[in-house]
Structure formats: structure tokens, C-alpha cells
Amino acid sequence: MRQRVLLSVGNKELSLIIRNALKEHPDRFLVVEKEIFHQDFILDITEEEQPDILLLHDYYLSSNKETTEEREKSWLSIFSRLRETYDNDIRFVFLCERETQDPFLSELVSRNVLDIFNSNAIDKQQLVDQLLEKPRYSNVSKFVDRKDMKTRNVRLSQEELIEELSDEEDTDTGSIEHVNDKPTKQVSKEAFSVINEDEFNVPIKEKVIIQERLIGAIFIGVAGVESATGSTHLSLLLANFLSKKGLRVAVLEANKSEDFFEIEYAYEGGRGYTSEESKFVIEGITHYKSVKGMNIADIVHLYDFIILDIGSIEKTVFFEEFYRSHISIVTAHGSEWRRKSLLKFLQKHHEKEHQSWKIVVPFADSLTLHDLKKETGLSIYSLPSHPDPYQGQADTDHLLEEMLQGYIPKKKRQVATSSKWIYAGVAVLVISLITSSLFFFR
């Protein structure tokens, strides 16, 4: 029987490696297409996808929690709520970079998290092999203080606990671990420090950068392969779409075009309007003009989504932010004589992890989409004609919903919907009371 696996890693490269490794066992694992990229969405998307295995990463998954203590409390709360809802129906796999003696890992074990990988370099074959077997306490007993081992709230039956402790004693006296009565060689600690094709590495430097720049908001980087491909227009469409869902959204002008000055000027009615402010608000969307010298870390916790309007990627100093964004979108022309610009762009940046990039081509027909998808192997989208980016449009909304699948919190949409019904109910009640009063005093 195949197990549904939901990835909640937060890093495109690691996610792809794990996904491909699990896909090598199609009879055992079904990795769902949707992924979780923010800690706030775990409960909603888990409810929607109903996985058998939920694989998470401690650092790479974005969170609104600023300190380590707050983040750990959030993790423990999430695991507790999932256990209350699904009991032991979901198997948790936790990837992190922590010391074996870290008390937090012991707390995870107490919540029946029996698959913990705490090394910077993880043997992907060992990860897969462990998931092919049933969850075993012996895999995580090293994270629990032996003095506390018998008092930990591990939700195993007494027979399973005895079996696991027995296996642990076996591994203490030799280098052989017994799995299903078949001896297998135990992976030595040194194996985790060696980087080769069978291991994936989480770069510590990149982890720090992502923590500083991306935790708190989901970043969308919008860049064009050349000038005038519509990156600013698409950025505003995305901002309006997300804002209409009740999300806090900011758009940053991460280029030198100064288009935002013109947008503000037009919005204020022209006639010589000037402003020294670095930002302005239209339709609930905060627009930051010319981000030069701006510290993004100062605003990262103020918004649910931050959209970087990078413009032509060849003319910006923000290309690293584009690569590190949770969602990377490339705009390009679809005409045959300009299509080569996209192919040259992808070839030039082939060393980057671009399999998850989304390519948007304004007004492209189905034949163009088919050809580009065949040539690039990437997700290609045709942006329909949409003159006013601050007005909703059904076909555009459908497209953006598809592009952002897995990033939009379901809870916020439900709250908005339920609010409408509440208001409607109150209105009906008020009208009924007024009608009854008029009838009574007639």
C-alpha cells in the first residue's frame, strides 16, 4: 500500500532531492504535488491533503517566530495539535541541524516523532530506507536522556516499547542493528560528515541568510529576461490578488525604473503632485519606491507576502534575492523571434536551481505554451489581457490561484467566507426584527 507523503521543507533544492529519492519507490510512496512553505500553513494543508507521512525541516521552513524559543514552542504546539487530530495516523519526519543532546529533540520524541535526522549532511538512502520500515523508537532513543527514557510520553504499546529497547541494547554491544529480524549494517556517525552523490547538504551559510531575509513573509521574486516583459504589471496583479484574500501585501520596486513614482503620481490625480515618502498605499497594498538602501529585514514581519518587482534581471543588483525567493517567476516574450532570449537566460543561469521557476508569457497561445514547455521543461503560463492590475478578473485570478498553489493559507479564505455569511445572517435577522415590529405596532 502506497503512503502519501507531504513535503514541508521550505527549500526548493532539498525538496526536489527528497521528492526524486522517494519517487524511486513508486509502489511505496506517493509524493503529493502540493508543498508547504510556511509554518502557518501546516495544519490547513495537512487537513486538505491527509498525508501518511509529513516531512518537515526545522530551519528552512519559514515562520513568523523570531527567536529560537518562540519557534520551538510553535513546533511543539503544531505537533501536539496534529497528534490530537490524527492520533498516530501521520508519521512525522523532522530534519534539522541540532546536537544530539538538544532538549528540544527529546521533546519531539515525547510527541512520538520517531524519525529525526539532525545532521547537516544527510544520507538520502538512509532516509528512504528508514521510511521503508515502520517507525522505531530505537531510531530516536539517542535523543532521549536514558534517565528519562522510561518516563517519556512516547505513544507506543508496551510490547513495542520492549521490542525497541531490546533492539537498542543490541546496537549498544555491536555495530549491527536488527530490522525485521534481518541484520543490517548500522551507518556510522562519520558517514554523515561526508558529502557525496548519495547525500544532500544543507549549507549553513545559506540557512543563516534565509533566516535573516525570508522568515516572516513569503517572498515572490518577479524578474524579466529582458526589459518590457511585464514584470511590474504582473507584480501588481499578484499583489491585488493576494490583498483581496485578506492577506497583508507589499510590493518592492527592486529596480531602477522608478515606475512606482509614476504610479503614485497617476493615482493621486497628477497635476504636479509630488511626495517625499518612500512608500504609498493603493487598494490596501503597500508600494515601496526604489528599495535602494532599504533594509528588508525591517519590514519582513509586517506582511504575509512581499513581492520583489526586479524587472530585467540583467540590470538589477537584486538577483540573489530572486534566487532565494520562495516563488521565482520569470516573465518573457512569446514571439518566435524573441523566444531565444528566454532560452539564453535559462542557459546562462543553468547552475541555479530553476526547475521550480514559473515562466509567464503575456498573451501566449496554446501552441506557444506547448513549444516553450517542451523546450524548457518548466511550468509555462499565459497571462491574459488585464488592463487594470488593481481590478480583479476571473481568468487572471484562476491563473494566479494555480501559480500560487500551496502558498495561500486556506484558513484566511475560510474566515473571509464565513464573515460574509455572518454579516448576511445579521442583516436577515435585523430585517426580520424590523418587519415583526412594524407588524406588531400596526
Describe the protein in words.
By secondary structure, the chain is an alpha/beta fold. It has three domains: 3-207, Rossmann fold (3-Layer(aba) Sandwich), CATH 3.40.50.2300; 217-408, P-loop containing nucleotide triphosphate hydrolases (Rossmann fold, 3-Layer(aba) Sandwich), CATH 3.40.50; 417-442. Helix content is 39%, strand content 18%. It has 14 helices and 17 strands. It is globular and about 70 Å long. The chain crosses the membrane at residues 421-441. Keywords: Membrane, Transmembrane, Transmembrane helix.
Brief rundown of the structure:
Keywords: Membrane, Transmembrane, Transmembrane helix. The protein has helices at residues 12-23, 42-49, 68-86, 103-110, 124-132, 158-172, 204-213, 231-243, 259-267, 319-324, 339-348, 366-376, 394-403, 410-440; strands at residues 3-8, 29-31, 53-57, 91-95, 115-117, 121-123, 176-179, 182-185, 199-201, 218-224, 249-253, 279-282, 285-288, 305-312, 327-331, 358-362, 379-383.
Q: What is the correct CATH architecture of the largest domain?
A: 3-Layer(aba) Sandwich
Shape: globular
CATH topology category name of the largest domain = Rossmann fold
Q: Give the percentage of residues in beta strands.
A: 15-25%
Provide the low-confidence segments as ranges: 149-215, 411-419, 437-442
CATH homologous superfamily assignment of the largest domain: Response regulator
Helix residue percentage:
25-40%
Q: Figure out the total of helices.
A: 14
What's the number of domains? 3
Rg over C-alpha atoms, rounded to the nearest angstrom: 26 Å
Distance from first to last alpha carbon: 70 Å
Number of strands: 17
Q: Class of the largest domain, according to the CATH hierarchy?
A: Alpha Beta
**What structural class results from the helix and strand content?**
alpha/beta
Order of strands across the biggest sheet?
12-13-11-14-10-15-16-17
